[in-house]
Known about the structure:
The protein is α/β, with parallel strands linked by helices. It has a single domain, classed as Rossmann fold. Helices cover about 35% and strands about 20% of the residues. It has a 5-stranded parallel β-sheet, sandwiched between helices. It has a two-stranded antiparallel ribbon with strand order 6-7. β3 (about 70-75), α3 and β4 form a beta-alpha-beta unit. The mean pLDDT is about 100. It binds flavin mononucleotide.
Amino acid sequence: xxxxxxxxxxxxxxxxxxxxxxxxxxxxxxxxxxxxxxxxxxxxxxxxxxxxxxxxxxxxxxxxxxxxxxxxxxxxxxxxxxxxxxxxxxxxxxxxxxxxxxxxxxxxxxxxxxxxxxxxxxxxxxxxxxxxxxxxxxxxxxxxxxxxxxxxxxxxxxxxxxxxxxxxxxxxxxxx
Length: 176
Ligand SMILES: Cc1cc2nc3c(=O)[nH]c(=O)nc-3n(C[C@H](O)[C@H](O)[C@H](O)COP(=O)(O)O)c2cc1C
């Protein structure tokens, strides 16, 4: 069975992206799923002066974890139209320790927000830039108006079907 790593690039203790990945992981049939919680990671802001001797241990562990998996689902918040510093910092550290860390393996991108945009602007940015780090982007899904769409641990209404379609596309690529 193929191994899927699913994680959210948020350090918010009540992260709505963590809720989104928890629900999404329940849709992953016939795959071995690792749900990684990085909300409490305190990663120093990348500096060339710290590189390589002060690489945070979590970064090396994350690289090993990524290497053990066949595909990835990454959920990212959007901050001011872009990638939150928390996630961008982790991606920058990864890029320094492992070239093309995602090794041309399939990735599904997810985002949500309380507003109508659903974090789609940043998702476009990540879809364009993560291939530099080896990600093979299969598709992207953004969920607007999170607090209306997500109730009692589940996505309700018209946003559910497109999420299922994206997950199916991802699983097809994973098993191809
Ligand atoms: C500094 C900051 C900037 C934000 N900018 C955006 C934005 O550009 N677009 C958006 O949809 N939501 C924006 N938000 C709202 C986030 O979508 C919201 O905080 C969401 O809960 C973040 O996801 P998380 O809970 O998983 O961290 C912003 C929030 C913060 C704190």
